[in-house]
Amino acid sequence: MGIFSFFSKEKKETLDKGLEKTKESFFGKITRAVAGKSKVDDEVLDNLEEVLVTSDVGVDTTLNIIERIEQRVARDKYVTTGELNSILRDEIASLLTDNHTEDTEGFVVPEGKKPYVIMVVGVNGVGKTTTIGKLAYQFKKAGKKVCLGAADTFRAAAVEQIVIWGERIGVPVIKQQMGSDPASVAFDTLSSAVANDVDVVLIDTAGRLHNKKGLMDELSKIKRVMQKVIPDAPHDVMLVLDGSTGQNAFEQAKQFTLATEVTSMAITKLDGTAKGGVVIGISDQFKIPVRYIGLGEGMDDLQPFNRKEFVKSLFGTE
Q: Helix %, strand %, coil % for the chain, to 5?
């Protein structure tokens, strides 16, 4: 199967629609940045820098992109403003490639990891539990046997929400009483998964960030207890971020990567915002694969992140 073969026409349409607000805002700003200019000069680059920063690409990543364009301009001697979109597209795609942001090949799990355990982290309100539900739906649709663990035991709403998702898509949810030890829920979930020959386990966790040491201790304990059942669990620690919060998503990523070893990210709520540039900045700054992006409320609106298709949708060109 080719690397982009899973990217269907329907997925492409969802991606285009989901990034529409970002694209319109981004290109509106670029149009104003180059107004009255025929060639890319220092003033255009200064204006472009402002466009990228205000599009939530982030300061460090913006400076990286501007430096790449400056080198291109110096090498090619004369670059017109009409060529700027094409150059920007190329440099952003190159940046994502250089940072080893791998394309996620659909909803698949590695061979030889059964059950494959994903521990999902993120602050409350970013769409964490909804992302877990959508992932469970996609894995089940892909023919996998799935189990959910309600280890966010500090909020009744979190447990209720994940139970509703489980009933909706027809997958079991392991839970305990409110206020139970989250690590105990994780232990029970993995024990049940092993006993029932489950393929994929998704563990929800509490989303508190006010006390980083407390969060670190709790997540470390959950990992240790899981490893009593499956020695190399969790296989993936997935951080869910709300793309609509822009720079706040950077701060959350920073705090969680300090608190625990994050191995992948899912960026949600990109459809309702013009802040889709945050995907570029977070991919660049944290060097952690963005595995999924959320583009709407529907079950199929959580998509594997594909660098090439993302950049094509953002720029609307081949």
A: 55, 15, 35
